[in-house]
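Lecture 7 notes: from sequence to structure.

We start with a single chain of 347 residues. Read the sequence below before looking at the structure.
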Amino acid sequence: MSRDYFKRVAQTTGTQVWINNPTLLDLENAIEAGAINGTTNPAYGSKLVKSEPDYIRGVIDDVVADVSDDEEAADVIYQIISGRFMDSFLPRYEQSEGEQGLVTMQDDPRRDEEVDLIVEATLRHAQVRPNYMAKIPVIESGMQAMATLVEKNIPICATEVFSIAQAVAMCDLYVDASQRSGNTPPFYLTHITGIYDEELAAQVAAQNIDIGPELLSQAGTIVMRKQYRVIKEKKYPTIMLGGGARGSHHFTEWVGGDAHITINWSTFEELIDLNPAIEDRIHAEDPQAAIDELRDKIPDFRRAYDDDGLTAPEFAQYAPLLRFRNNFIDGCDAVLREIGERRKVLA
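Now the structure, written as tokens:
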């Protein structure tokens, strides 16, 4: 089995891969396979409870011995596990002079509406390692925070992007903040393809919408391709980042562009096993009939696809974004439960 698939994709097309929420072994394997950066999210600790229970419980035990408040303890734990992640990428960060080897952290989603808390958490997490990158949702509060963080020259991964309106609003904000401050920190703009497809599939099932499963499974990719075109046409100074993959096509459909995709190690393994043909898919033309059917039958596709489908005040309540955020809240709650259990054990 060849493990150089992702390196060949990068060499052939320029499309790069990142690793998301890994165990230490998965991280080592992903770097060997070609990962250049990494992502975490607020559910990272809960993932390690399942995949590296001995490690994470050791971290929790050490932290709760010194920190009495559970919420504060959870943040310290997140910093420790993210720091371990960042350590593995530090050599690449240093060798590339900060161009690669970055790892994202994202604050507690229950505080997403509070601009000052987003900025405060970002500046605190920026002290974890030099290769830190802020991961912040593209909602009104997050965008206000990101304007401040551009002025402080903090690398930014703008996340929870599901719509063209979000992408354009965030890029315009970055350009404006950059011109005012003179700073151009690394700026990645996500599109969360798989979670978007999950949410639309749930809506179709709940509302008995008559649409073929094959077309439905391409909805997020169709929006992604338009987002990529808009970014290139407007010459925005960003790299588009795919996230939330739920299948191998959420990687392969991005191949061919100046784009990066962050995936779990399980998707790395799936693609290494499949070893699919390397072909340009991001520039594929989606049939207008398919776009029209999705627009006519699924209002949340229209909201994502149309340039004016959402207004900024609507970003935070958009159904795919809420689905994604709820996953993170569940992850935070799981870590807090584990902290409570470890306190009982250690009492």
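The chain has a mean pLDDT of 96. Keep this in mind for problem set 3.
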